[in-house]
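If your schedule permits, I should be very grateful for your opinion on a structural question. Thank you for your consideration; the sequence and its tokens are set out here:

===
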Amino acid sequence: MITYFNRLNCTFELSGTPKDVFFYLAGYRKYFDEPIVRARISRLRFPKTCPVCCAPSTSISTVSATPQNKQWLRPHWNPAFYARERRRIGLPNPITKSFLVHVCEEHHITDDGDARMRCLAMLFAALLSGLSIFALIFVGSDLSSGRGIHPLAIAYLVGLSLSLTFGYVAFRPNALEASVRIIGFDFDFERVWLELKNAEYRRQFIMENQAISEIVNWVEMA
């Protein structure tokens, strides 16, 4: 295994699944239990096998990342998450880096399906947030008068639980996102750091990109 000094100028968030928060602190060194791959972007080629199961590929999917100076615990906390807020405070549109990855038919996932599910999850969360004031009114009235909790308040709690469960399912990484995770890029975006979960696929990736890739086990976040 090669231990290589890597320094990233920023970190990147994929589908709202950060394991650590605020990697932007200067000199923060992150170690990985499994080795990660550092490769040159301009000549990067993904193996023609599925990164999830290593079966022969039948289609192509994309894995994307949005550069930013820090990772947010929740995507909507980021002021640049909403287009309206970006326009209001004059922030530029985020740049998205995408890679084409060969996948099998079973693990072929379209961005449209994930986007629809996540939009529905945010819609349900916004609706329940608006109804929360009425639920508090009903509960406060029932408790002050000595009555039992109103059935509508119970229904609200059930709906809230279902919404949280649906949001967790919608925003958790799918099989492809969990198998190919973008850790970050260097200062001039010439190289990318990838976390490939499948050891056999990682070996195939290194063989496919022998001249431009190497195995590393830690990076230093700037």
About this structure: The chain has five helices and eight strands. Strands lie at 7-8, 10-13, 28-40, 59-68, 97-103, 180-185, 191-196, 213-221.
